[in-house]
Amino acid sequence: MKNLFSPAGSIRQRLVLILLVVAAVLAGLLYLSVRTVADAAVETTQDAILGAATVAIAEELRGGEDGITVEIPYAAFSMLGATGQDRVFYRILVGEETVTGYADLPLPNTSLSGLTPTFTSQVYQGVTVRTGAVSRSVLVDGTSQVVTVLVAQTRTAQDAISRQMANRAAALGLGFFAFAAILSIFTARSVLTPLNRLAEAMGRRGPQDLRPVERAVPTELAPLMHALNGFIARLRGALTRTETFITEAAHHVRTPLATVRVQAEIAMRQTDDDALRATLRNVIRAVDDSARSAGQLLDHATVVYRTDQRADEQVALCPLVLDVVDSFSPTADMRDIALRTRVPDDVIELQFDRLLIESALRNLIDNAVKYSFADSEVDVELSVKDRMAMLKVLDRGRGIGAGNTAQLAGRFRRGENVGDVIGSGLGLTIVRDVARAIGGSFEITERSGGGTCAILLLPLA
What's the whole-model pTM score? Predict the structure, then answer.
């Protein structure tokens, strides 16, 4: 119950519970109202019958010179017996003297008003009885005498009728509660429908869709819509600033480092001091390492950003692979590494962000060239398998060493056998993230005969 009413609880369950509590209270009030009205109606009816019987007896009293003649009419008791098997007691008094009936039947505590019955409930002979009393004046030998007539009846029939009415009232209350429960569930669902539709509309949006939400909603959801549109506007601005920062950072970091490297190379050519040349070579290596790390950090940031803000298009994979391989030809030629490419003649197309695919291809081929031995070959093979484009990059380099192949794609993770080669440990991370974003897969294994085999699977358009 505490969790139900916590801020993180279910609104639907909370609303249904509140409506059920209200329905239970109303059902209880309905039961009490029907029971009270029914009991009052039964008691009024019984009192009317009891009063009629009492008056009937009183009206049959006759006065004369010898006293009062009492003739109890059969109809009086037949009326009382019509409602059930109740016991009936009566008492007739002239003045304060009982002339017939049960002498110990108690008199009412209130004064009597003629033939208008007075009713009281009391205990007589161990049971609760309802007593009706009237009085009238009768002439006896020319003298007016006050005669009091009491008729009492047990409440067995009345209690039975009351129980029957109570059961019906309870059934009515339960029926009302059941109907209210069904109505509560329907009401909760109806109330939350606009919110669910808004959530569905937002869920159908792509990650690059940052337009304001324009949807007709109830008045109560207007503040939420205003806050949501405000958040989208702030997010759009933040993403724009992030993209601008990444672009500017790439330029402002790489350009100074390139300048430092050029100046260091010029200084190394102009000096004959071996110690200074060694120092300058270390500077150039450090600049290359920093430039590469900074470049791959920015590339990884770009991949992460573009994964959520993709600009998907039809990408012809074969020309893209050939272009990327050609861009590494100068670097490979400097180390006498042969780049061999095999692509099919058929058109292979992907529906994805071209920048992300190109980034993944560049990092795969860059790793193959960087870790290959001189006078070796790097094979780049593109094929189609099970509706997937399969790109293999195979080299005859150092291999993956003794490390876990599944961990090499982690951020800043490198093999144990490549410590002397400049690298940041982000290249394979970028390839893995691109494969996941497009719904493909990536793995790298040892190649038979030495080297590595990197396989990138991408779904076709």
Answer: 0.46
